[in-house]
Structure formats: C-alpha cells, structure tokens
Queue: 2 jobs
Job 1
Amino acid sequence: MRDLLPKSLLGQMLLSVAFALLVAQTLSAVLLYRAEEQRREAGLINALAFQLVADPRLDYRGFAHEGDGADSPGRGWRRLRIERALASPIVHGELRDAGREEELREVLAEQGIATAELVVLSRPIHSDAFIMRGLRGRPRWRGEGRWDPRGEMLVAGLRREGEEQWHVARQPLPGDMPRALGSLIFQTLVLYVVLVGGLAVLLRRITRPLAALKARVEQFAETRATDGQIEPTGPADMRRLIAAHNAMEARIAALIDEKDVMLGAIGHDLKTPLAALRVRIESVEDEVERARMAASIEDITRSLDDILSLARVGRPTDPLERTELAALVASVVEEYEDMGEPVELAETQRIATPLRATWMRRALRNLVGNALRYGGSAKVSVLREPGAEGNGWALVRIEDEGPGIADAEIVHMLEPFVRGEASRNRETGGAGLGLTLARAIAEQHGGTLLLANRRGAGGKIAGLVAELRLPLPR
Amino acid sequence: MAGPGNRTGEPGAISLLLVDDEASLREPLADYLIRQGFAVMQAHDAAKARALLIETMPDLVLLDIMMPGEDGLSLCRHLIESKNLPVIFLTARGEATDRIVGLEIGADDYVVKPFEPRELVARIRSVLRRAARAPSAPQQDALYEFEGWQLDPLKRKLTDPEATVVPISSAEYRLLRAFLDHPRQVLDRDRLLDMVQGREAHLFDRAVDNQVSRLRRKLEDDSRAAKLIQTVWGGGYRLAADVRRLSPTPDTGA
C-alpha cells in the first residue's frame, strides 16, 4: 500500500489536495442531500394534509354521482384523489408509517382538525385499485408522469372526530435520487479540473527547479566541479535557493582548489629538501649509518606520499581504464616476491574491470605490506563474487597468519593515524595511513574494504583477512 | 656562490646540465655527480640554462619541472625540438598523470624527488645508452602490435586483444620489449639478461626463466597450445609472432 503513494512533492501535494477536496465535497453533499430529503418529506406531508383539509364538505353531495362530475378537471382531480370510504384504507399485510402519521397528525391539528383515526402507509401504485381505476378512466393522466404504475405512493386515511366516514388522500412518492446530487457531482468534477489542474501547473513551477537542483547537487557531490551550474528559475524563493546553492558550490570548489594548491606546495617544499638530504648522506662514510639515514628519509617520504594521496584520493586526475585485475595483483605480489618476502599468489581468476591502476596498485601494496609487516606472510587471491543485483564483485583477499586484531579494535584500524599495537610497532614506519588510504581507494572505485579475523578450528584467531571488493560493470 | 657555471670532471667525461632553482639540492647533487665522474654545468632557471646552451652542448639535461619563470616542461620542449638533447625530469610531483605529461612531451625519463642518487646515475647511463643505440626518436614511441596485443612504449602499457590493460612490471616490460624488437629470433638467457638490464639490478639476480614465466602468465600464454613465447631446446626463448609498429598516438608531441 505504501508503495502506491506518490514519492514526489508534486504527486503528494496533488493527492492531498484531491483528498481534501473529496472530503469537503462529500460533506456538503451529505448536508445538501439531507436538507433536500427534509424538504421533500415536508412537501409530501403538506400535500397530503392540504388534500385532507381542503376537501370541501360540499363534495359529500357529489359523492353519489361520481361518474358524471368529470367535466371539470379541478373537480375531477380532487375527486379522484379524495376517496371516501367506510373503512380504513389499510389492507391486510401493509405496515403503517408511524413517523409520517405523527407528522401529518401535527399538521392537521394546526389546522384545527380533530382526528379520530389516522393511517399513513406507502404502497406500490399498481396495487392501488382507486388510482388504477382512475388511470384507466383518464388516460391523459398517465402523460403527466406523476402516476407511473411502477412507482410508489403514499396513502393517508383520516376519520374525523364524530364522523364514521374515512377520507383517503393519495400522493405519489418522487424517485429516489434528488436532482441536487447530480449537479453536486458535476460541480465536484469541474472543481477538480480547475483546482487540481491549476495547482499542478503551479506546483510544477516549484518542483521543476527543485528537481534540477537535486540533480545538480548529486552531480556536484560526485565531480566537485562548478561547471554546469543551473540558472535560477521558478518562484522567487526557488531562485534565491538556487542562487545560494551556486554560491556555496563556488565556495566549496574554491576551498578544494586551495587545498590542492597548498598540498602541492607542501609536497614540493618538503620533497626538495628531502632530496637534498638524500644526496648529502651519500658522503657519509659509515655504511650502516648511511643505510639508516636513507631508511629514515624513505619513511618520511612514504608518510608524506600517504598524506598527499589521502588528500587527493577523492579527486583523481587519471581516468578509469579497463584493466585486468589479476595481472595487477600478480605484479604487486611479484614485487614483494622479488624482495624475498613470504608472499603467495593463491587462486586467481582473470577479471577485467575499469579501474585506476596507479591507485589500485597502491592500495594493494599497502594491504600486502601490512600483512607481511604485522602478519608475517601474505596469501593473495582474486575471485569473482556473484552480487545480489546480478552484477557481482571482484574480490581480492589478502590473508596473513599473524595474531589478528582484537575485535574491539578492528573497526578503528581503518581510521587515519591508527596503528595496530602502536607502541610495539612504532619503528616499522608509516604514518598509520596505509589502511585508511586503501579503503579510500576502494571507495574511489565504488568498492569496499573489510578487515576481519580469520578463525581456525576451535575459534582461535588464525590470522587477519583483508577483503577488497570492487563492483563489476553490467 | 657567485653563480652556477662549468665544473669539469675528468677529461672526456659525460657532461650534464643540471637545471633546478633550489640551490640546496642542486649544489650537493652536482658535487655527487662530479664524484661519480660526470662533468656538470648548473643553471638556477630556464633563462640561465638557455644561455649556457649557446656556449656548450651537454650530453644530457637534468631538469626540474616546477621552477619560477619558464617552467621545466616548456624548456624541455625547446631542448628536444631544437637541440635534440636527452632529458631526465627531476620532479617533486609523483602523480601518474604528471609523469605521463613529462614523457609525452618527449623527456626520456623522470625521477621523483627524493630519489636515490645511485638510481639517478643508473638512469642517466641507461638513457644515454638508449640514445646512442636508437638515434631515430619518433620510432621509439611507435606502438608494438602482435597477435592483437598492443604495447605502448611511452606509457609502458600492455593491452590485450579486448583492449583491456594488463599491468606489467618494469622488468616484464623490458623483457617483452626485447622479444618484440627481435621477433622470431632465438634469444638465449645471457642475451636477454643483457638486453633487459636496467636500474633494478636486484631483479636480474633472479632467473630469467622466472621473469619469462611471469610474462607468459600475463599474456595468458601458459594455457595456450601454440605459445607466444616458446622455449627453445638448448636454452633460450623465441617470440612466435609477427610484430607491427603502429604510428604513435596523435597527441604525442615529437
């Protein structure tokens, strides 16, 4: 049910306006219908009362010669309606209408007529012998449509105080639906077209710039470039919002540009003296000392590179290129192999996927380097993993056989400047950015990085596993 | 220091022009290179370098990219177009795109600061060796094509028949390049070692066989019946494919 409701602003507003309109119209329809009902009911009762009251006593005389009084329509009309009978008009099996009887009694009392007995009931016109006889005698009546034999009628019988005779009045009941209801439905439809249509036009003027702004925000979040800004359109509030957004975009872009310039300057200003230092230590005679100095410089350089890369990882300048991931992983593994490190390339599958090889190589180096440094060995595999939506993932697993990481600490390992067991491994170098950078690179490719302890038999930690997942296209 | 100028090493030594605005790096580096047996001229900016080049022609130019005034890229274009001099960039920026730009305008190599001085010397020698061996520069950039595969020597990029990039190490690159330059010839291990010798000397302590098997794996060659790189009985390898050279990519300014 929830899925059927419109998600957009336009849809939701139109729906709520339409609903409110429907409720309002229904209420007024009910009120109108009830007023109409009351009016009709009062009219019926009054018509019956009028016949009973207005019946001239004179007509007593004419009662015996009913058949020859037909020359005058007024008399005939009255004569047909008012029947004089010696008994109550109620036939066995018919029900008295107590509500109408009461109303009629009141009306008659107001006219000063003392009622001895009063009966009101409704019956089908075709089963009323008096009317049917009249219809047969005067076919013209049928043309008036009031006495349709298929309809219903009210019959009221009155015996006055002190009289033996009954006066019986008859009144056809009108059809069920009052005409007002039809016009009410028509009115509602017109209102719908005018109000909802007009509102839709108005809302579109608001929601169109909103939709454009939403698309723009999404684009900016991805590219962080100010080109392709939207023109302020729509109502004044929308224009101001769009103009403010454009200003904010420009500010953010300027900040990012400043950051890039600053980082470039830092990189340049630190790397040049480092290079000078690196050249100068070549004149150090003590070879052990020289090697230590070189290692220190390398450490500083690596930290500096990590910091600069982390700052730039969100805005890569190189394009994605369809690359064979297994070959990339293999080349990183082989680098470590050549340095004599205990690294093993396990199962691999050839997977071609768009990626930035220089960045990805860096992430893989960090992960393999970490496994070797803290876990003593690295086993790397490349697998294809089916995804929920059919696209699937490329999974690079790096396993080590080290002590793992305490479960409470594992989530913090991906944060910047956090090192596993900091005090003990201080001398192993790095700014503690390796995993942070690896994760940022995975995210740059739309992927994820997960760290988990590998449990052996009996639930003991058998090592750490890093899982780098990259989304596969299509 | 009154001004950078000529410093001669041994007579007949290889002469270098070192252009860098940072005296703190330039001077110790010049000293180091002189100790290594080179003759070194120094310039603190592009203007000074141009002035020095009117008087003498060095064998190779070491060039900083970020300098006040005319930058290294612009000077490099001048050096290559009008002087045809080999150039090695010294750059503080390590991003891949920066390197490609330097190589694309025709530099022979690049070294990222801070570099190991010994590595710089190795690269100088390697560039000079290549310059002596292959005087026709444009041919250097031409793509190799074999069996649907392509190798871009400028970007050191290998692509398979489906245009997927297959990353290879620099050792594998040099090995493949040796095979591609000598298609259908038997190359024995010593010859291969000789041809792929580069800066990472430790790589070549490993058996050539190991490098060949890695290269085969990258070329999906280990699973094929007719192998691209065949083992020749008696010790050696042969590329069993024809190689075409395609004209370099249009954006290469040479």
Job 2
Amino acid sequence: MTAATVVHEVADLVAGLPPTPAIWCSGLRKRYGRHQAVDGISFEVQRGDVVGLLGPNGAGKTTVIKMLLGLVRPDAGEAMLLGRPAAEPSARSRVGYLPELFRYQPWLSAAEVLALHVRLSGVAVPASDQRERLALVGLAERAGDRVGGFSKGMQQRLGLAVALVTGPELVVLDEPTSALDPVGRVDVRDIVLALKAQGVGVLLNSHLIGEVERVCDRVIILDRGRVAASGTLAELLGQREVRVHLTAATSAVEARLAAAGRVDRIGDWFTVALPPDDDGSAVPDLVRDLVTLGARVHAVEPARISLEERLLGILRAADSDRGGDGGRP
Amino acid sequence: MSSVRTVLTIAALTLREAVRRRVVLALAGLTLVMLVFSGWGFSRLADESGLTSGQTRLTASIVLNLVMFGFSLIAALGTAFLAGPTLAGETESGIALAVLARPIRRSDFLLGKWLGLVAFGCGFVVLAGLSELIVVQVTMDYWPPQPAVALAHVAAQTIVLLTLAMLLSTAISPMASGVVAVGLFGATWIAGVVGGIGASLDNDAVARVGTISRMVLPTDGLWRGAMHAFQDPSAIVEFGGSEAGGFPFLSTAPLTTAYLLWAVVWVVMAWALAANSFVRRDL
C-alpha cells in the first residue's frame, strides 16, 4: 500500500465521519465564592440546530455561555466548539457572539467596529460584505456614525452585525432582543431562521419564551446551575389538552371528564389534560361518552400546553423536589 | 490569527482611542502652554545681566530639569489615567466581552494595549521634550549634554508607571488604579528627595529611604538619570559638589547599567504579573 493510497483512505474515512457538533460540553462547573453558579451542565448543539437556553434569573445561563467562549474559566468539565477544545482561542475563529452586556468602542464608527472584529477574527471579509451585514440589521445609514451616539437598540443591532460579520458556523446570542422594539424582534427571528437554513448552529439565551418557542428546535431549561429538562419542543410540550364547552354537566359527566385526565373548570368551560400515550382516540371517545351521559356539547377545542406553562411546571416541580424550600430568588 | 497581528491591531486601536478621546488634543494643549510659559521664563533668565557663563548653565540646567519634571508628570498622569480605563474600564463596561470572544489570546490583547500606551507615552515624551530643548536652545543658548539619553530615561519612567497602572487595573477599579499609580509616583519622588537630603547630610538611614523607594518603583531613579543627562556637567560643581544631592532638580551621578537592567526586569515582572492576573480573570 503506497503512502498516497493511505492518505486517500484516511481522507475518505474522515470525510465519512459525521460532522462535529457546533457545541459539545460535559460536566461544566463554576463556583463564585459560596455560590455554585453552574453545577455539572452537559449538552450539545448540532450544526443547523437552533437551541434555546431557558431558565430563571441566576440559573447559570450566561455563565455557561461565557465558559463556552473562554470568557470564564470553568472549575471542571470540558467543552468543544466546532470540534476544537473551547480553551483554545482558535476554537472561536468561526464563532459569532452577541453578549448580554453589549457595548462597543464608543469612539469608533459602526463600520470601524465591524472592521476591527473582522481583523481580530483573521477571516477575510470584503468591505461590501461588511456593509451588507450592517444593512441586514438596519444600520446601513449609520455605518459612519460613532457608536457613542447610538441608542441601546442600535448598539444591540450592531452587536448582531458583529456576531454575524465573519460568516460564523456557530452563533451564540445572549438575550439578543432585550433592547429591541417589536420590529427588531421579528428581524432577529428572521435572521436566526436564515442562519438555521444555512446550517449554522445557534445557541439562543432569551427570557422571551415566545421567541424561543418560535425559532428553537430544542430547548434546554436550566435551574440553579443544572439542566432541569431538555429536548425538542415536541418532547417538552408533548402533553396536549382539550377544552370543552358543556352545559347540563351532571356529576356523572364530571366524573367522566375526570377519568380522562386532570380537569380545570372555568364556568362552563372544562380543560382536560390528555394522557401522554394518547393514540388519538381519547377526544372522540370522551365526546361520545359526554353526549351519551346527557351533556350538551357546545364546543370542543384542542389545546397544547405552552412552553411558558411547561417551564413554570418544571421549575415548580424542581422546587417541590427540594422540599419546597422556596429559595428561588 | 497570528499573535503579532493581534498585538499590532490592539496597539493601533489603543492609539486611536487616545486620539479620538481627545487625550492627544488635551496633552498638546498642555504642552503648548508649558512651552510658551517656559520660553517666556527662559528668555527672562537670559536677559538677567550679571550672571557668569557657569551660573547661566547652572540656572538653565535647574530650570530645564524643573520644566522636564512637569512634562514627565503630564506623561505619567496621562498614561496612568489612560492605562486604567482602557483595560479595567473595558472589562467593566463589557466592551472586552465581544473582543476577547474572538480567536485571540488575552496575553496578546494585553501586550497590544501596553504597546499602544508605550508608543503614546514615548511619542509624547520625545515630541514635547524635543520642543522644550529647542525652546531652551533658542532662549538661553543651552543644549543638554546627552539629550537622547535624557529623553530615553523620561520615556522609560513613563513606561514603568503605565505598566504599574496596568498591573493595578487588573486588580482594582479603573479610577483607583490611576490614583494609586500617580500617588506612588509622587511618593517615590518625595522619598527620592528625602534620600538625597539624607545623602548630602551623610545620614545613611535617611539616604536609604531614597535607595529603597528607587528599587521598589524605579520611576524616581530613572528620573534622576534623566536629570543627569539634561544638566550641564559643571552644574554640580557650581552648586557645591556633593551637596547638590539634597537639591531635587539636580542629579549627582548617572545611572548604573545594573540599575537600568533592574528597571527592565521590574517592567517585565510587573507586566507578567498583570498578564497572569488578566488571563485568569473571569469576565
């Protein structure tokens, strides 16, 4: 076997390997004094996936992001970005980052800030592409203006352009819409979806659950430095409900509703949580039985538990597991 | 990205910050005021009749040292108050988050900041110092024996102080780092004067105050080397020989090579400590 053949075989072997995840981390820990900010967090973000980080204040979301980007030194654990150890600066060469605390050199113009980041990343980005990035975030007209005169919203838009300017393969957005108006939020949503379409991995930390629900493929819920739950939206929101508007609800009717699942009643509206293993027959069976029992059925509406309800449910369950110490900040 | 490119990019950014934040403009204004006043003062001295040529050289040496001390103070204040905000300020405000998340080493970032400040401080010292020397030449017909050595010593003093301010800014707030650095600079200078008085009185214990302070922070030692290179060699004899050691604006001896080496070692150690602290810092 010649050396050239070996090289070809190795190249074929490498080409056949699945692409490395955009983010891989295992057992990340960080303690600040007596406070354990992050306590053994592990997760993955695949390329082309949009993953949302959710959790209450102080759950450790921003600390996790900073550990991934080498801004905070983990006490323990390992992390890889795009297949390279996160501790090495070169791991960040194809990574874009919008910090939660977005501030850029106030004495530079928007175009100069972008040029600085392009230079520091070592990636060649033509000036026309840099201008396009500014136009994408709505700052084309302000390219030559000093950042010191920008509003918070405009600085956040600039931060988004900085995160995207080098054509990254992984983008980490920490509260990307905190200072934006509703139009800006829609713009960010469109940008994130465009990144996903390009196969870019996105880690999105946001308090806006609706935002996460609209764009994320997977969600990781952190609570007190740990992963409280994670999965696809379908997995997390798997529990479905049905809302039924009834009159002539006798005790037998109520008993039948209770047999189907947990019932919440507001006036004549009954909301019934359906079992997770429902094969699709629970609702027709329930309606048939209710009619048989003499109830007058005015409306039947399928409903799904919102991510917000699910998040609150997970966090409350975690609280009660700890004996209801009520220590949540 | 290569380390050299990162260092040069950050150094250029630091210089641009100094220009854009109008630090350069403020320093240029101050320098102009000092040049005009000192020019006026020197021309008045030159007009004084009845001074021998030796007395004229002594007077020129003392006043030049006094004015250059003013310039070194401006350089020290300028760079110390730039070094704090440019590092600690950026980490506090969050500007450093986006920059340091780029594929760059923190030590390269720090070296770039330091180099930018060194270029700024040394540029100021050379330009302002040369202008002052020309003013003295025109008004009093005095040219120091070793102008390049003298300006190099003042520049070195500035480098020592900005390195100290940078080291402090990795541990304490930006404003506090500037205040502490300038405070230490002043304290060392006073300790140097006290030590000089002790030496002229042959009091070893008091003289040791100056020696120790010059070892702990080499700003005053370097300043004394600068004065020696600015002043006319005959000035000391004219002033009264070794008793000139008690006078704050004359220096009795040039710096030894060992002391200059110590100053270099001091800067390297302070920079390494600053880098060690900055690299480990959680942002």
